[in-house]
DNA sequence: CGTTGTCTGTACCGATCAGTCAACACTCGA
DNA sequence: TCGAGTGTTGACTGATCGGTACAGACAACG
């Protein structure tokens, strides 16, 4: 058996993800990634199919590590209204805590790139659907438990909440400060009150 | 006096704006612009300072032609609640009518580029503030006239509405269809009801 | 008609891009 | 010990990037 790789693919994907996240797909060069990872050009092309392949894998990793696991965790919260509140709180917190103001890789991609590539478009679309489904589930659960009023229309409300999520993530990159973001999050909670 | 320009600067800016709008700043090359306008490279650099200068001018033109004039028009509507409704309706309509799904240049820029350049950052920030101010004004006017309830908290609500605007524009690029966008717009109106 | 000053068109610049390739390093089974 | 097979490396490719230089086209003056 031959020589083994000197790096973990998932580590490289993680670091590549950070670069794509910060700079965007178009503005990220392979050299940026080799600089960030320390992996040489040839090794990178030996392990991956190229820039696009790396980006897709980064998106998948982002989805699994950051989004899906977070939503699964929140689904274990007893009070669904509290779960949604926690969701928005963590969103605002993540936005405020990031000194680079990178926003959310999913939405950054939705704007920069989704109109150009079908693979990526689908990943973005699925990621957003996942959030909508989570919110719909929580709203329905809340209505069953009686701490979200029946007057709340589940599907339109879930979609509006996602739109607010997008707004928070985009405006959090610079246009809105702490107070404004918290106000928006509060308005989101008001939508299910 | 010497030879005059064979093109209108504002025409070139308009066409360059379309290219930037569709492809994003980083992904747009000078060749893309010369192709789209028919202007040769040298003439373009003779008339403008370069790619960045062209982009800033395109952003300014977008702001003036599309945003500011629209908001001024809506401010002449008697019923401020109706003005906000029309604002969201036209937003959804513009999003649905665009076959290229370009979204909004302002928000596209907010995500792709605002973290890299201070001039552009300010333009984006000011553009968003303009919309917030418009919405605050209409909400206050509606409260005075009595067709928006006093229980609506002007500033947080205006900010949430802008967040929904962003959401509609971003999600309208692919993730959300006609029904979903209209539902989100309706939820926006519900926020001031 | 010639001078003057601006605009046009294109060749060209160095830098950088994504991606390739062949020489070399290394491990392991035979 | 050596060949097979994989990983690493850095030089290299052709294309394209943003931007420049300059020769020629043109119009308004004298």
TrEMBL record, chains A, B:
Top-rank taxon, per record: Bacteria
Taxonomic source organism: Novipirellula herctigrandis
Residue ranges annotated for the HTH tetR-type domain, each copy included: 6-66
GO MF annotation: an example: DNA binding
Keyword annotations from UniProtKB, A to Z: DNA-binding, Transcription, Transcription regulation
Keyword Transcription regulation: yes
TM region positions: none
Annotated protein name in UniProt: HTH-type transcriptional repressor ComR
DNA-binding region: 29-48
């Amino acid at each position: 058996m031959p020589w083994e790789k000197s790096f973990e693919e998932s580590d490289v994907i993680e670091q590549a993800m950070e670069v794509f996240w910060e700079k965007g797909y178009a503005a990220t060069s392979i050299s940026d990634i080799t600089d960030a990872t320390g992996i040489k050009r040839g090794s990178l092309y030996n392990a991956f199919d190229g820039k696009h392949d790396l980006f897709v894998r980064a998106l998948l990793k982002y989805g699994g590590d950051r989004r899906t696991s977070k939503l699964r965790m929140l689904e274990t919260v007893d009070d669904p209204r509290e779960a949604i509140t926690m969701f928005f709180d963590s969103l605002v917190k993540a936005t405020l805590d990031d000194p680079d103001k990178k926003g959310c890789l999913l939405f950054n991609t939705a704007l920069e790139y989704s109109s150009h590539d079908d693979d990526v478009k689908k990943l973005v679309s699925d990621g957003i659907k996942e959030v909508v489904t989570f919110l719909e589930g929580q709203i329905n659960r809340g209505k069953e438990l009686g701490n979200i009023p029946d007057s709340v229309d589940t599907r339109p409300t879930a979609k509006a909440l996602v739109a607010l999520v997008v707004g928070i993530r985009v405006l959090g990159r610079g246009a809105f400060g702490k107070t404004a973001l918290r106000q928006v999050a509060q308005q989101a909670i008001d939508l299910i009150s």
